[in-house]
Structure to design on (385 residues):
C-alpha cells in the first residue's frame, strides 16, 4: 500500500460523485432554461421572410434563407430599426404593441459636444448585432414581446417647441398602454418625457436617474438645456423631488447650483463612491425604496450613457472618468427593471465622438437588458398578460 491510499478519492472521482454540483453554475442553468423558451415567433419570422423575400437560389442548401433579406440575417444587411422590430408606419396602431421604440433626434440642449441627434440612428444600426435572445437572462424578446419602432419624433430647432413634440409623442404611446422607450437625444428630453408620463398616469411617479451629473439647474445659458431636466420634472406636482433618485453622481462636472438644489429640493443623490462602498445590490435597494416611496404608482427610468466610465463611452457629450463599470451598471439596471418601470430613456449617445460604435452598443445593451429583466420578472409580456 502506497502513501497515496490515504489521500482518499482522486479529484476526478470526487467530482464524479458530485456531478450535480455543475448545476450551481448559472451558465449551465441558463443553458437548460433555453430549452423551455418557445421558437414559435422566430419560426414565423423565417417563414415570412421566405414568402415575402422569395425562396433562395437553388444552389443554397439552407432553405430558410431567402433571396431578399427579410429577417435578422445577415447582421450586416437589412434596414435598421431598433432591435429589428417592425417599423410602425401608422402610429395610431401603437396600442397593439407591448413596447414602442421612439427615436428622439434632439441635441440643441447640449452645452459642450453636440451629436446626440444621431444617437437613435447609431443605436438602431448597432442593434443589428443583437439576436432577440439573451443568454444570461434566459429570455427571447421575440417570443415574449410585441415590439415596434415608431421612428423618430419630428424635433424642431427650438427647445420648447421640441419639448411639446416629444411630450405629445410619448403621451400618445403611453396612453395606449404601450411601454415607451426613448432613444435619445440629449438629456433635456427627460423633462417632456416625464411630463407626458406623469400627465397620462395622473398619479405619483418616481424617477430613477443614472448619471455622473445631477442635471438639476433651473436654466443654463438662459435656456432649459440638458443640464436642467430634473429641476423641471420635479416641479410637476405628481413627480415630486422626494421620489427622484440620482445614481452614479460624481466628478468635476457637477455645477454647484445643482448640488444646492439637491439640498433645497430634498432629492436623493447617490455618489459613485456609494456604489463602491455599499455595493450595487444595496444601492439598488435604496434607490427603489426612495423612488417608490409615498405610494408612487410607477417609476420612470432615465439612463445617461455618461454614467458609465468615460473609457467605455467616448461617444458622449460630457465624458467623465470614474463612473459605473458596464457590469455594475447593467446589474443596477437589472435590479431596477425587475420591479417594473413605466418608461425609459437612453440619452447622450453622440456618434460623431464614438469609437467603433461602442457607446451606441452599450446604450443598446442597457435597453435590451432592461426589457429582458422585465420579461423575466413577469413585469412585461404580450400586452401585460
Ligand atoms: Mn450626464
Amino acid at each position: 500500500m502506497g502513501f497515496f491510499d490515504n489521500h482518499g478519492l482522486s479529484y476526478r472521482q470526487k467530482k464524479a460523485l458530485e456531478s450535480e454540483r455543475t448545476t450551481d453554475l448559472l451558465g449551465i442553468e441558463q443553458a437548460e432554461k433555453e430549452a423551455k423558451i418557445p421558437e414559435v415567433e422566430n419560426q414565423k419570422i423565417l417563414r415570412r421572410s421566405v414568402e415575402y423575400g422569395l425562396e433562395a437560389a437553388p444552389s443554397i442548401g439552407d432553405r430558410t434563407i431567402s433571396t431578399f433579406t427579410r429577417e435578422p440575417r445577415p447582421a450586416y444587411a437589412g434596414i435598421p430599426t431598433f432591435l429589428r422590430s417592425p417599423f410602425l408606419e401608422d402610429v395610431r396602431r401603437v396600442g397593439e404593441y407591448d413596447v414602442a421604440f421612439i427615436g428622439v433626434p434632439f441635441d440643441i440642449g447640449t452645452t459642450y459636444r453636440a451629436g446626440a441627434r444621431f444617437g437613435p440612428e447609431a443605436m438602431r444600426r448597432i442593434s443589428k448585432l443583437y439576436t432577440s435572445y439573451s443568454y444570461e437572462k434566459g429570455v427571447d424578446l421575440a417570443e415574449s414581446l410585441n415590439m415596434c419602432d415608431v421612428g423618430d419624433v419630428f424635433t424642431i430647432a427650438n427647445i420648447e417647441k421640441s419639448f411639446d413634440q416629444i411630450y405629445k409623442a410619448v403621451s400618445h404611446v403611453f396612453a395606449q398602454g404601450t411601454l415607451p422607450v426613448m432613444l435619445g437625444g440629449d438629456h433635456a428630453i427627460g423633462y417632456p418625457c416625464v411630463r407626458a408620463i406623469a400627465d397620462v398616469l395622473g398619479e405619483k411617479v418616481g424617477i430613477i436617474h443614472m448619471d455622473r451629473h445631477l442635471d438639476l439647474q433651473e436654466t443654463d445659458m438662459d435656456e432649459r438645456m440638458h443640464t436642467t431636466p430634473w429641476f423641471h420634472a420635479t416641479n410637476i406636482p405628481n413627480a415630486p423631488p422626494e421620489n427622484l433618485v440620482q445614481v452614479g453622481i460624481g466628478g468635476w462636472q457637477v455645477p454647484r447650483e445643482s448640488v444646492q438644489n439637491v439640498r433645497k429640493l430634498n432629492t436623493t443623490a447617490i455618489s459613485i463612491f456609494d456604489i463602491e462602498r455599499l455595493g450595487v445590490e444595496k444601492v439598488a435597494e435604496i434607490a427603489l425604496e426612495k423612488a417608490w416611496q409615498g405610494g408612487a404608482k410607477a417609476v420612470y427610468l432615465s439612463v445617461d450613457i455618461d454614467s458609465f466610465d468615460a473609457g467605455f463611452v467616448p461617444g458622449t457629450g460630457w465624458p467623465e472618468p470614474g463612473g459605473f463599470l458596464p457590469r455594475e451598471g447593467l446589474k443596477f439596471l437589472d435590479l431596477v427593471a425587475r420591479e417594473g418601470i413605466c418608461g425609459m430613456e437612453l440619452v447622450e449617445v453622440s456618434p460623431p465622438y464614438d469609437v467603433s460604435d461602442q457607446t451606441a452598443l452599450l446604450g443598446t445593451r442597457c435597453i435590451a437588458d432592461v426589457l429582458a429583466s422585465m420579461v423575466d420578472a413577469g413585469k412585461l409580456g404580450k400586452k401585460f398578460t
User: Anything to note?
Assistant: The chain has one domain: 82-384. Residues 211-213, 304, 306, 318, 348 surround manganese (II) ion (CB under 6 Å). The longest helix spans residues 358-376.
